[in-house]
Amino acid sequence: MKPIRPRSSADGRRRHQASVARRRPRHAFALAACLVWQAAFPARSQPDEPAPSTAAVRLEYRYHAGERIDMEVSHRAPTETTIGGTKQSTETATDSTKTWTIVAVDPAGRATLEHSVDGVTMTTRTSDRGMVRWSSRGEDPPPLGYDAVRQSLGVPLSRLVVDRCGRVIERQDLRPMPPSSTGDLIIVPLPDDPVAAGAEWNVPQEVVVEVPNGPRRAVRTRLRYRLESVRDGIATIAVDTTVLTPLDDPRLEARLLERIWNGTILFDIAKGRVIRRTTGIDRRVVGFSGPESSLRYKSSLEERLVEPPAPTGNGQPRTSAAPVDRSGWLGRRGPNAAG
Fold first, then answer.
1. Rounded mean pLDDT of the chain?
2. Which residues, other chains included, contact 180 with Cβ-Cβ below 8 Å and sequence gap of 6+?
3. Cystine design at 72: which of 200, 239, 280, 326 (Cβ 3.0–4.6 Å)?
4. Radius of gyration over alpha carbons of the chain, in Å?
């Protein structure tokens, strides 16, 4: 038997080079096939997002008699109150569907609208009393203090006559209502003339704030609207609130918090209606109930248009699930509860 000769490092290098030489043609063939495939079937590029329009557009409401416009509204408001070293927190969540019924539209485009709220779910959680929750879609009676809520559901709360720009010509409150918690007007005001991105329009407003057993004052504010962009037929509008009246009383300032909002509005130009509105605030007031008191109010509100159900084959509207409860004002507890 021949003795086994130890393998040298030179033998290993020769075998490795021979192996590489054998594999190289296969690698070259694979690379060539890949290049041919890419040339025959180029990769599809992602579609570009539509560029924002720079042309002036007319923003106006387009109402039709007999139609119904539903908005799902969601309001969240955590509040932290500190008085004399004692801290209390309150969290409220209110969800419902706000409905606009178009009663009539005259030849000039002025529409008569009826505002109502259908179905509400309210949740309140306090640091000292736990959580209370009630839904109008359930069978349980409303908690103490909410009896008037059920009577206000599904019935007209107010009747308005508005023009194409959202300007309120007439208003009739059919039932007592708290101020609009969207911070701005109940109908988003639109400019009279066509506007391009960057255009602004201002709406003056007077808000009356009152402290129980205390002062009452009219406060001037200004709502500033700005057309941020127009993309794919949707106008994005920013809104912010400026308080013009100097306030030197923290009690009044605390009462004013829930009437000051910044937010964004999406407006469908072809449909002539708001499809989404989001607003929010996060502010603190010190000294509203003595030198060692503070109030932090953090609130957010979102409204979304509910698209009508598509008709079925027999021409009847398709039955859909119950809408998500969302509302911004029913049963709400904010800084007004801390006065």
1. 80
2. 186, 329
3. 326
4. 31
